[in-house]
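hey can u check if this looks right to u? its 228 residues, i copy pasted from the old doc so theres a chance i mangled smth
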Amino acid sequence: MSSAILFFSLLGGVLPALLWLWFWLKEDRLHPEPRSLIMLSFGAGMVAVFLALPLEQYLKGAIANMTLVIIGWAVVEETLKYAGAHFAALRNRENDEPIDSLIYLITVALGFAAMENVLFISGAISQGGFLAGLDLGLLRFIGSSLLHITSSGAIGFFLAIGFYRRGAVKKIERIIGLCTAIILHTLFNLYILKGNGDGSFTLTIFSFVWVGIILLFVAFEKVKQLRR
């Protein structure tokens, strides 16, 4: 890979993710998270991509049914994003209020989306030139990146709901959140596959993701009102 392709891939993959991150961090302006944990969470999301790739390749080779493969991919990615958030921030003492779960899960999701976008954009530039990379970057900015935010945000929401709870209830909330994220991710990928490159169909699917983002705003407001 040439230095120019690497530069524009990083620019097109990481910069939009950082813009989304700046946008979502504003939701916790009263008690902002430590910059070190935000950076660690973002980095954990990026690293998770390289853990996901070999697992997804294995599933693709081991399972004949494509629907099951896509479900498996969603399980891998959502589980790794949650694990990244857990080890990077959720177990830290700074995770001391319900909204923190949402912030850290979204941050990890954006790190994952950033590195995923870098890889996709570099491939598009190598095959179709810089305009192809730009087109794909814009498409992922309003589509796949928001899908990662929405699905991981679902986990963060249920973690927030169970923040002040204990025992089995807290674990159930965590499981519900992870299952919700996997279902959302699976449905998105299945419908994208069904669209088979149809632009209007793809935009229709994206519109459902945007609805998910609106619901995530509602979730933030609900979480802000939680009290012990």
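The first helix runs from residue 3 to 25.
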